């Protein structure tokens, strides 16, 4: 079951989508946290299907890729994470899905789902990561709302 955050944003889906996929622009609206320390490498700009990126956290490294890109309604980021404390090749499988549904002109419902897959060796960490994903999802959505609603 994913960690889900849903929020209504007073903006058209295209404006929200373009903000979500602008990986280089995250520094302008998404302050770093222990879950999101920032993106250190992006393979292409503008972001498109197949764009890759790296996020280095205190716990490990996420090697991300955009695996679905349907402007303005859906984008999916796949970012398997190698924990620093885990044996090489033992990864937490993370997918972040963002769905946008225009409710009326200028109003869009945004749903952010984080799917976490844990290998047997890391099953004991599942609850900690699920709790973190829920809190981070709510933080990201609120900051996304503030950012997009402040844009002209």
Automatic annotation (TrEMBL):
Gene3D superfamilies for the chain: 3.30.530.20
InterPro entries: START-like_dom_sf
Official protein name in the record: Uncharacterized protein
């Amino acid at each position: 079951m994913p960690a889900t955050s849903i929020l209504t944003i007073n903006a058209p889906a295209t404006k929200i989508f373009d903000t979500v996929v602008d990986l280089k622009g995250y520094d302008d609206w998404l302050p770093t946290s222990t879950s999101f320390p920032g993106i250190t490498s992006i393979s292409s700009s503008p972001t498109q299907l197949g764009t890759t990126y790296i996020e280095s956290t205190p716990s490990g490294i996420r090697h991300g890729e955009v695996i679905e890109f349907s402007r303005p309604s859906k984008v999916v980021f796949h970012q398997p994470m190698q924990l620093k404390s885990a044996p090489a090749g033992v990864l937490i499988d993370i997918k972040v899905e963002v769905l946008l549904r225009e409710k009326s002109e200028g109003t869009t419902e945004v749903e952010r789902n984080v799917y976490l897959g844990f290998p047997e060796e890391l099953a004991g960490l599942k609850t900690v990561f699920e709790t973190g994903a829920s809190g981070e999802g709510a933080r990201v959505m609120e900051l996304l709302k503030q950012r997009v609603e402040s844009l002209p």
